[in-house]
Amino acid sequence: MKGVSAIIAIILLVMISVSLAGLAWVWFFSVSNTLKNTAANATNTATSIVSMEARIEAARFYPTKWVNASFRNIGTVNISLAKLGVFIDGVLSTYSPNTGMLSPGNVETINITNTTQACGKVLKITFENGFEDYRTVTCT
């Protein structure tokens, strides 16, 4: 009987060791997949941010108190029109259209509501990645 107890104890110890090794492998596999997905998402986000760029091509003030501005997407990713920041002399302004996407290489013209004389003032458009461009507003 003494020999049988030793064999059962060894079998139990081996089973516990195998179970712990299996749990460790599952945990390690889960952590490595999470890290891989996080790194892939961070890389995609960083690439998208670096690839977003635009240039203001024209900005004109009209006596009816609005500014017409055209800008071109010179980057390689789409720009969301809803995520623009439009400022005239540092004052946040409303604009339209403020929905949709601007594809690379395309030009968008927006109408900026302005209640003051904007001739000679600076138009600044900021994009969702922090990039910004400036242009002096001309008179019609």
Write the layout of secondary structure elements.
Layout: H1 2-50, E1 54-62, E2 66-73, E3 79-80, E4 85-88, E5 91-92, E6 95-96, E7 101-102, E8 107-113, E9 122-126, E10 132-136, E11 138-139
Parallel strand pairs: 1-11
Antiparallel strand pairs: 1-2, 2-8, 3-7, 4-5, 4-9, 6-8, 9-10
Order of helices and strands: HEEEEEEEEEEE
Tell me what the CATH architecture of the largest domain is: Sandwich
Task: Please state the CA-atom Rg, rounded to the nearest Å.
Answer: 30 Å
Overall pLDDT metric: 86
Separation of termini?
106 Å
- What is the count of helical runs? 1
List the strand order in the largest sheet: 6-8-2-1-11
Q: Find the count of extended strands (DSSP E, 2+ residues).
A: 11
Low-confidence stretches: none
Q: What's the overall geometry?
A: rod-shaped
CATH top level class name of the largest domain: Mainly Beta
What is the CATH fold-level name of the largest domain? Immunoglobulin-like
Helical residue percent?
Answer: 25-40%
Output the structural class.
Answer: alpha+beta
CATH-defined superfamily of the largest domain: Immunoglobulins
Structural domain tally? 2
Proportion in β-strands: 25-35%
Largest sheet: 5 strands, mixed
Q: Tags for this entry?
A:
4-stranded antiparallel beta sheet, 140 residues, rod-shaped, 35% helix, alpha+beta, Immunoglobulin-like, 34% strand
